[in-house]
Structures are given as structure tokens and as C-alpha cells.
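Memo to structure team: turn this sequence into C-alpha cells by end of day. - J.P.
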Amino acid sequence: MARILTWLHKPELCTESVSQKRSLEERSQEELIQLITTMIDHYPDLETLLEMPAPGAGQRGVTVDPAVIRQQVFDALDTGDDRQWGYSYVDTSKLSLVATQGDAYASAGDWRNAATVYTTVALEILDSYEELYDDEGEYLMVVGECAQDLITCLRNIDEAEERMYILESLYSIYRWDINCGGVGAGDEAYVGLIEESSADEKKIVAQWVRQDLAKISDSGSHWCQQAYGGFLHHLGIAGMDDDAYLSFCREPGRLHALLKRLLDFGR
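Reply from structure team:
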């Protein structure tokens, strides 16, 4: 914070990042190793960075280990009983730094590794959400940012398996949001699944939705049924013949669409 205030009021006193990079480039390998060792001694959490492949390595088959990212997320989250006021802002700042590692991979065109970082950060936050106090929605904001970044990855990946990995990640975020009553965490994922998936991929996503719909009992959440049903509709399933569409509308959560279409038909 002090450095930021200094930059705002006396920018001439701050060393530019370009100068820092030049300083590092001028050091020998031995000096860099010693510098990194000293930094880790002062900040042990940085040690996990040594386990991360360099940006672009994914193009040579070297992939990020999700366990390393999970550990970084765990280190960033404060779930203890002695949490102080404002801890969520500190947590989310740390989490955003973890997520920005994905940006480095994305900048190098290493989209699969970028997707692994974004996915792991988002899902680990959601898995730990019940232990967090998110009064202002800071944690879910990080999840939403990760979802946006996953959509960017999806736009830049053609390989079917990698695309399916991202679609599954986005759907996991969306499903968590629906099961929690729709708190907004899945908004970006919802849009991405609809707008960035191919026709064949939409069919697979629709299967996931139908499976989750089937798990909702008659006494289950009517809102969840409506949400899943609406999602099916917007996936483009409505682009079918009239009889097939009526059959689709008879599924849980689509009563209003069914009635409207029957009225349209004069039935």
C-alpha cells in the first residue's frame, strides 16, 4: 500500500518494472538462484511457484499440476476462527494473484494450462465457500473472472478434449450456482456455455442438464427445475419440430413454455 501511495504522489521515486526486469536480466544464473532462494526463505508460500511449468511449456506437453494450484488457493484462503475484519479482501487479492498465473500461460498461447489454473481456482473457492464469509461477494467475483477467462480459453482452443474440459468446468460453476439458489456465480458460465459451444457440444451439455434435472425429486426445488429447464431452452434445444418441442416442454420446469406453445397451436 505504501508503494502504491508513493507512486500516486511521487511517481519519480518508484523504480519502473522495466528497470527491474533489466536488473534481473543482467544477473548471472548463480545470482538469480541465490535471489530466488532468499525470497523463498522470506516468503515460503512462493515455493509452490517452482513446481509450475514455464508459460508455453504446455505446447510441449508439460502441464500444470492442479494439486499445486489447490495448495496455492488453500494458502490464500483464511478459514481460521481468528479471522480479522476485512480478511476477505486480503484473501481475494491473494486468490487473484494465483489466478493471474493463468494469464501468463494465456499470453504464451498455452491455453490448456491457463484453463487448468482458472478452473482450479474457481472450483476450489466454491468447494470452500461454506467456510468463508462473503458478505460483499468478493470471492464469487473471483469465480466470475475465472469463468470469463475460461471462455477466452474456449475461444482459442479447437481440440475436442480440451474444449470439453473447459465446458465441464463452466458447467460445474453453473451447477454450483443453481444448487445454491442462483447467487450470480454462474452467470458468466451460463453465457459461455450457450454462446461458445458448438451444436454437438450443446447436446452433451444438455445431457448434463437432464441428468441434474432427474436428480431433483418431486419435492425438490421448483426454482431449480425452472432454471435448468430455461437453460435447456436457451441451449437451442427449441430449434426442433413442433411435436419434439412439446415433448421437451413437458419436462420439469417447462410448464409455461408448454402452455404458451399449446395456445399458439390452438390446442
